[in-house]
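Appendix B. Raw example, untouched.
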Amino acid sequence: METLLQQLTRGNALILIIILGIGGSFQSGYHITGLSSPSPFIQRFINSSWYDRYEEHPPAQTVTMIWSLIVSMYAVGGLFGAVSVKFISGRLGRKKAMICNSFIAIVAAGIMLTSKVAKSYEMIIVARILYGYSSGLGTSTHLIYLGEISPRKIRGMVTLTSATFGSLGKLFAQFCGLSEILGREELWNIVLCVPAFFSVVHVIALPFLPDAPRYLFIEKDDDKACKKALQSLWGQGDYKQEMDEMSAEQAVIEAAPPKSPLQLLRDRTVRWQLITMSFIYCCNQLSGMSMISTFSFDIFLKAGIPRDKIRYITLGLGVSEIITSISSGLLIERTGRRPLFWGAYGVMSVSWVLVTVTQTLKDSSYWVPYITTGLIILFIIFFCGGPGGATATLNSEIFIQSDRLAALVLTGIQRWVMFAILGLVFPFLINALSSYCFVLFACVCLLACLYTFFILPETKGKTLLDISEEFKAITLCGKSFLEKERVETKL
């Protein structure tokens, strides 16, 4: 552990990781949970703004529709941000793309801040779209940047910091939303602008830090700038091994140029990587974690927790996420990736089964709801310590440079579309199925456990080309996608 800390502090790597974090996944984490605290104040603002314009109170369904637009437009913006990551990050480079992204977040905050004075709920919707776009672009570019600055030996720990900063953003939003801090009606527009302060710090600090070495070497073909960036980040050294690895990857890319998302979908050589990432992202979304983040108040209210204690429990959930994310970062290079996936999914599945049981028995005793809370906290600990953090690491490891941007576009589209759909469906699901909706989550976690145990290769300590070869070797019922491609070629 001491060696890892020494590596991080020998150059500017730790500073860059922190600066990227506050301008990247921290912003997304904050905006995912930041809207829950001021939601009643915003709905009253919609009501009063409508009355000021038309001198009559709006129908209840109109307020609900406008509120639904404010919530869902964030996911729409995120979808467009994810789609544009290949163009913007490829054209501007990783550093300039992150700086540009922070400017968008600052503009969004300015619109949100002035919406109250202007008495315009339309401005809130516009700000939410821009926040979503910034989160979609920033989260993907943040992950690419981390993967391209990290040496192979600590790649897992470095890329996992994106999940840690996402959890930190959620916790900070819950903290700012407390009535003792900024969670009061007169401050609702300010609580939604807090991340802009970190965006300003990000814009000021990032120009003084190096761009991603792998991007400079492979895409800009500038080996001197690459070596200078490596020395700036990780201290003095010749970094021959790292540059030889990049050179080998560059040779592969020259033989097969960067692909578009549609070309990647048609490429059989990366079929297992795409199936794996799509399946894991799908399972993560359907595991129940997204719903805990977005609808934690409703879930704990249904569980039987007193209304006045829920906000402190959700704050405790945020603290659990942070501690577990940091612990996972320290473990991932020792245990590998696979055990963190299948082990965590297994415990998560059991947790949801037990939650279903305790929800059914919640009226039998006053302490049963607190058992439910403990099981949900256990679920969060294993999600954040397993797939919640390791998915980001895996995503940066299983695609070579020429495929990575297109892959992130595809997984980003999937993530944001599912986020929007689940946000609309879950309130009806929990009303229709009550406690039995958690059985659905348990089944999804069990499927993910079986897939990652039997199919997912271990990526710890391997080059990107070695990992790519391991995926090509995967067979199902004695056949692989590559064999099918050879048959088609012969025909």
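End of appendix B.
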